[in-house]
Specification:
With 255 residues, the protein is of the alpha/beta class. It has 11 helices and 7 strands. It has a 7-stranded mixed sheet, sandwiched between helices. Bound molecules: adenosine-5'-triphosphate (ATP) and magnesium ion (MG).
Amino acid sequence: MKTIAVANQKGGVGKTTTAVNLAACLAAAGRPVLLIDLDPQANATSALGLDCLDGHSVYGPLLGGKSIVEQIIPTRFDHLFLVPADLDLAGAEIEVARVDDHLTRLRAALAPLATDRPFEFVLLDCPPSLGILMTNALAAADELLVPIQCEYFALEGLSKIVQVIEQIQSCGANPQLTLGGILMTMFARTNLAQQVVDEVRKHFGEKVFNTVIPRTIRLGEAPSFGKPIIEYEPNGQGATAYRALATEFLQRHSS
Ligand SMILES: Nc1ncnc2c1ncn2[C@@H]1O[C@H](COP(=O)(O)OP(=O)(O)OP(=O)(O)O)[C@@H](O)[C@H]1O
Ligand SMILES: [Mg+2]
């Protein structure tokens, strides 16, 4: 079981789009995937066409002594399961901060999965900001997948994330955490976007996925229909890109 945090403290860079569509493509390839919606905005939950259910989220396992296994719901896709978000999660930021083991709460909450309900991949859709939920995700994950938008300040945000990874490693919360991959998202055919991709590749080399996600109208629309792109427009550019990402992701994880 590999746990991957899809994270970037910057808002609106394609975290949820990537978590949902990568999860859907991995599941379509027959790989058992659990997507955990860690964002009180519940965008990943609604992008799969599911509603928030009161009392059904990681909040209970984080703070209420509930088991994570009981929070898992099936989706209409084979091999794809979800722990949805609910309104309680909005309070988790503050409440988790008050408990002793506040950095490793999520890690402890997810531990039973390995024995009781193993998946091949667990994807964590993180909220923006470097808050408690995101740092908990980094402490719980084996690796980080960082989507970044092909725009001017991309590198600045990335160096911040690298710093945070180092902090999480060195404080002992998760010495094994690695930067698994950087994904360039919302690529438009402009010189600036190409320069940004080149610049990020120059600094981060192999860490950057070969697959670049294009900006397409359909990718932007799909969540409002509650559909991953492979269902909404299976043969379009967006679906092709996320399928290619899943293939590359699986190559990186075959050992
Ligand atoms: N490749 C793309 N092409 C077009 N629109 C996109 C693409 N990727 C994401 N979007 C749209 O951009 C917006 C932000 O994307 P998304 O919600 O995935 O980002 P996020 O990083 O999860 O945001 P937040 O930080 O608020 O959680 C959404 O409306 C989404 O539908
Ligand atoms: Mg999001």
